[in-house]
Amino acid sequence: xxxxxxxxxxxxxxxxxxxxxxxxxxxxxxxxxxxxxxxxxxxxxxxxxxxxxxxxxxxxxxxxxxxxxxxxxxxxxxxxxxxxxxx
Length: 87
Description:
87 residues, 75% helix, mainly alpha
């Protein structure tokens, strides 16, 4: 939505520490994080009307961002479950 912050630290405040840890320790997660923020930055520029691509292109970017966010959330949930499982 226009004007909302979609940075992952705002999207998942309960996982701030875990996101930072994974970014530093897991190259695969860091790549997903980077791709998410690259797309998010582009969507924000479009919403601020700094760029004016087609609606189709904008919607495709938003869908990509959502897919990446879902993938990142799944990773975070899996890691939290694994770390809280009894040994």
